[in-house]
Amino acid sequence: MTDDELLIKLDDSTRNATRHQLDTLRSILDQNGTVLYLQPYLPPHDAPLDAATFRLSVPLSSYDDYADLVNQMADSPRHHHQPLLSVDALLCFFYSSGTSSPRPKLIPYFDSKLSKAASYIAHQGSAAILKRLFPPRPTVNKILWFIYADNVRTTRGGVKVMAASTYPLQSGNANWSQFSFIVSPREVILGSNAEHQMYCHLLCGIRSFDLVDGIRAPYAIGLIKVFCLLESKWEQLCHDLEHGFPSLEISDVAMRNSVVEVLGGPQLDLAKRVRSVFEENSRGGIVSKLWPNVRYVRCVTTGSMEQYYPKLKHYAGEIPLLGGDYFASECCVGINLDIMQPPEKTRFILLPTAAYFEFLPFDMNETDAAGKETVDISGVEVGKMYEVIVTTYRGFYRYHLGDIVRVVGFYNLSPQVEYVMKAPKGPNEIINEKDLMSAIHKFQLDLGNAMEMEITEFASFVDMELSPKQLKVFVEVEEGCLSLMQEKIEESVVVLRRFCSSLEDGLGGIYRVQRDRGESGPLLLYVVKPGSFDRLSHVAIRNGAPPSQYKPPKIIRNREIARFLEGSVLVTII
Fold first, then answer.
1. For the chain, which terminus, N or C, has the lower number of CB atoms within 10 Å?
2. CA of 197: how far to CAs of 148, 186, 193, in Å?
3. Is the pTM of this model over 0.85?
4. Tens-place pLDDT, residues 436-467
5. What are the residue boundaries of the structural domains of the chain, listed by start?
């Protein structure tokens, strides 16, 4: 199928969105209507079932409703008298990209032709949109892609577990010739240490500086880490270019040897050029200084990734910073037709053939959606917010995806949405991700004006063991800011305490009401050591989180994560 044919097919699906939605649900139920999970809710398989009856019969679900069945499949995938979630064979599990828990969820990936067809249309359609904006060039045709295909684990039953982005590279029939456009060799992508892989990606990218057309990573945080590594290790990179082999810190022999081959011997002129770039005072626009032919930088910048957008724009300079699509581990959700837009203007077109979508009305000032009914794709209203509910080809039925979106319009007959935030989880969640990000942004502006302090990362945790419960906010500042703060510790504490009240004022109506009623105690603000959130990411990766999909938590729901950050506290403001 040509790119034009793909885009026409996508457009057609939005023109007949309601029909395609009903066809998608019918296909899912025709295929999987007899699975164990659905058995208590559905009539006999030969009985007709429309969308309204399906929604009345099958309850809304969350991951906990599937956990036992997922664990059974992980322990013994082939020893069940009846299919548990899908009649198709289980190929592997994908890690979820959520970070509110120390260990990621396992999302089953089945050998479903219908699922693969839907994913193909979405992913190839996305690629076609990119190629329309940036037509391929014959010589400058490499991508510096920070992708990490390691971290593949095996369950007790012998099923592989990996990131969704890793599957094309780790499946038994992976065709590596399809990835020849990536500037790094296979051994770097398959390495065993994410930081070493990142360094080698950079080294290979700089060696092929004149061939790089684009720079990519799954999420904005991944590129922030890349540029931070670049700033801290540029002298080592120059040394490696001068000598023609990577740092001895790179212990993976296969990865080292492959990078030596890419370097092709000492590169003295290139090392001199890189050194001159970094001897300048400014890092603004460093992308085009190092890679003069690059045309774009691309990653997801919406949701919790939006906080990194200004810093990425600083590094990118005049190079366009492109947005990503709305693809989850459970299913593809929406496609971004205008990838040049900044995160606050990014819109996604719902894909009517990717899954069956429902929308649960959401109100920022309510903690409980009990009693509310979902609407289908034709029942949403512009301007209103909804939690996304999906029924997928991958064994989830009326499943809380965990995302809040706002409907901003329609593309043909398919809703056009903007991503708002992760959905709150129950009545104990007294603030939401959106309000927290806005409050921290204002808090940072206040601190910047008063103390020139820059917050690099943050998260919150409601401590239910305290009476009354209290919100704890953890902030990490740059090393230089910390030194300044320690020099003037008394003044710093006074300033932080003064701005804590304005931080509290921005945390939303639910928090304010509970504070006024005395149901929640005063805010506890913790300043943690620089690098604390990086160390948290290392813990998460050791516990199975895929390096390429890791996102720092904003709303912490696990005490283990909160205790980890509490162990790094330098200053407490009460």
1. C
2. 7, 11, 6
3. yes
4. 999 999 988 888 777 777 889 999 999 999 99
5. 3-111+343-422, 135-294, 433-573
